[in-house]
Amino acid sequence: MSKQSQPSSSFAASPPSGVAPDARGAIADVLKQHIEEQERFCNALETLADQLPDAADPHDCLVAAMTVLPLMRRSHMFEEQELHPVLLRYASNSTDLAGTLERLRFEHMGDEVFAEDLCHALRQFATDRKSCNVESLAWMLRGFFEGLRRHLAFERDYLLPRLADGGATL
Ligand SMILES: [Fe+2]
User: Fewest CB within 10 angstroms: 35, 102, 125, 159, which?
Assistant: First the structure.
């Protein structure tokens, strides 16, 4: 049995302490990458929802099912372990910001629960379509990507500017 002491995500390697201003730029770049990756995934889910039932490719559904939870967890780990502490360190009003970040963490938890349900529904469609409620799957897909898009838009509009030069004192 091998001992695995490495973190599951490269973003979880070291919690920030005394983060230099230029490090905020690097954190902003990573946040942008996570947002863009999730936005692309939302677009793929929207395409699947539009294609249901007959034009949806079961292989695409399986890929989406395998992707959704790891993608969410990877982004949430980065945000909660790397991004949020840096934002709080440089916030002029950390009490207000802490409340906002707590709300975002609750949304993360909800998204991960939703992602698990979506994963199961997508797998069912791909492997046992007769027993799949396609209408429910379409509703789940739209509910998931619409909620996630709202979450991402908030992070882009509200959190990213705080990582820009001087913006962290917003
Ligand atoms: Fe987030």
Answer: 102
